[in-house]
Amino acid sequence: MLLVGHKEQWEYLKRSIENNRVAHAYLFYGPSNIGKRTVAMEFVKLLNCHNSDIRPCGKCVSCKNFENGIHPDLLVLKPEPPENSDKNDKSGNLAVRINQIDKLKSGFSLSPSDSGYKAAIIDGAGAMTYDAQGSLLKILEEPKGKAVIIIVAEQADQLLSTIVSRCQLMRFDLIQREHIKESLEKGNVPKKTAEEISWLSFGRPGLAVEYYKNPELAELQKKRIGDFVKLSKAPLVTRFKYAESLAKDTELMYSSIDIWISYFRELLLESLGKDKNHFILPAADWSKIKIRNIIRIIEKIRFIIKTTNANPRLALEVLFMKI
Asked: Is the CB of residue 1 less than 8 Å from the CB of residue 172?
């Protein structure tokens, strides 16, 4: 896997291995699609690599098993729909649940397959249920041998404070556009394409890779931005119909909200002197104050939808009434 940015975090993790001071639990937090899970995977690979203490060699049996997703000492958890639910229901309640943590506990009760570490990566941990967090806390309170748990979330306060206090915290931030562009070009992406994707990814290398692999996703991003700009001038009935449609697809709803936040942050930075992004729609006649207010509203609605039982459609309607 290619690491883009996050040099300080990577150097810190390498030193922890060199000094034999690997923590039992880490909390990687920061915006989505910026490489937190990639760093977590590379760290676990390095912990178990047979040939290197600088970067995973990618050649030993351990590294190859990690690359193929079949390493017996790694468990990756991510939000899933409830058991017995319709897998095609995109409005389902995705969460990391207690049965998944029970599986982690069972796996950690076994010894590593070789001299390395047992490892678990809990991705999307902000969607972990209260019961699952309580079960995870018990595991963190009684760490065992060479085992490491890496919790990946957007915000630390999405988790119980007692979990956070037992983790080594590592903050991850958005990546500079030039670093993303250089990384894409090193991967043989045409210069013009790399330029456009680096702008459209808004500092998120994970998005940049997805946009290159699936150009239709980049077009969808542009469409979502265009939809929002148009909604700001549309009648309420049109806004409410859009809210109803978007609320039916949880994944698309969250990605759209993230795109809108990134778009308005980009507009705000442009208004403060940053280079103009020629690959996105220009702002409507919005002042700096208006843009700041829109960002606050979107972030508040996003927080409410993700952390409460509020009806997503109604929350989106409130958002569209205030823009």
From this structure: no
Do the Cβ atoms of 47 and 148 come closer than 8 Å?
Answer: yes
Selection from 22-26, 143-147, 231-235 with the highest mean pLDDT: 22-26
Residue 305: CA atoms inside 13 Å, Cβ hemisphere, count?
27
For the chain, report the end-to-end CA distance as a whole number of angstroms: 40
**pLDDT for residue 99 is more than 90:** yes
Q: HSE, CB side, 13 Å, CA atoms: give it for residue 50.
A: 12
Residues 190 and 165 sit within 8 Å (Cβ to Cβ) = no
Domain locations in the chain as residue ranges: 7-171, 214-322
Q: Who wins on pLDDT, 278 or 108?
A: 108
Q: What is the dihedral of CA 32, 33, 36, 41, to 10 degrees?
A: 140
Order across the sheet with 118-122: list the strands.
74-77, 118-122, 147-153, 25-29, 168-171
pLDDT tens for each residue of 110-140: 888 777 899 999 999 998 999 999 999 999 9
Does position 52 have pLDDT exceeding 70, yes or no? yes
Using the Cα atoms of residue 112, residue 117, residue 123 and residue 127 in order, give the sign of their dihedral: positive
Please name the fold of domain 214-322: Zinc Finger, Delta Prime; domain 3 (1.20.272)
**Window from 126-140, 208-222, 264-278 with minimum mean pLDDT:** 264-278
Token pair belonging to 268:
């705000």
| Tokens (6 digits) for 115 | 């001299």
Q: Is the pLDDT of residue 279 over 90?
A: no
Residue found by looking up tokens 């030193």 in the block? 15
Q: Which of 224, 206, 207, 253 is nearest to 92 (CA)?
A: 253
CA pair distance 297, 323, nearest whole angstrom:
8
In this structure, are residues 112 and 44 in contact, taking their beta carbons and an 8 Å threshold?
no
Full-prediction pTM beyond 0.70?
yes
CATH 3.40.50.300 fits 7-171, yes or no: yes
User: Do 214-322 and 7-171 fall under one CATH topology?
Assistant: no
